[in-house]
Amino acid sequence: MTQNPSPSTATLLVGVEPDQSPTVLNAVAPLAAQLQARVVCVHVHTGRFITQRLPENLAEASPAISGSAHPDEQEVPFPQGLRDHLAEVFDPLHVSWEAREVEGDPAKALAQLAEELDANMIVVGTRRKGWRNRMEQFIDGSIAVSLSHRQGRPVLVVPQVANESGRLPWEG
Fold this sequence. Notes:
- It is built from five helices and seven strands; from the N terminus they run βαβββαβαβααβ.
- Helices cover about 30% and strands about 25% of the residues.
- Helix 3 packs across helix 5 (about 145-150).
- The chain has helices at about 25-35, 80-90, 105-115, 130-140, 145-150; strands spanning about 10-15, 40-45, 50-55, 60-65, 95-105, 120-125, 155-160.
- It has one domain (about 10-160): 3-Layer(aba) Sandwich (Rossmann fold).
- The longest helix is centred in the N-terminal third of the chain and has 13 residues, at about 25-35.
- By secondary structure, the chain is α/β, with parallel strands linked by helices.
- It starts with 10 loop residues before the first strand and ends in a 14-residue tail after the last strand.
């Protein structure tokens, strides 16, 4: 449900992934409804990285791993299953939302788009539990930490897993 927002409409930029815990969207949807904010959900394709931004806001990209992408390759579309899930979450609350696919380093891509959209807040989820995710964070670092240290917009970090009691902090 994409609508043209008025200039005074707040914008929440939300990092999303196909297998993300529902806690992130479940936290954002009522907040956006209460604030009457539009939500821009961003999926970052990490297979290619922006190497140069040109004056007309065009970008030259290179594959993350040499030879993994052909220069004439079509842009990666926003995952349809994720788009359908966003509609299920936001449409019943009458929240204006849109889905965008960007490329590159997730923290840099989210910060750049937040700047372009003049977003009021960036929302991301914590990493999921598990050995693979701990290794990924060790190698790549935390998106939330990178965002909070390298740009001036507020960053809301939503836990994707319950605490020791088995409940998320906002669950009654």
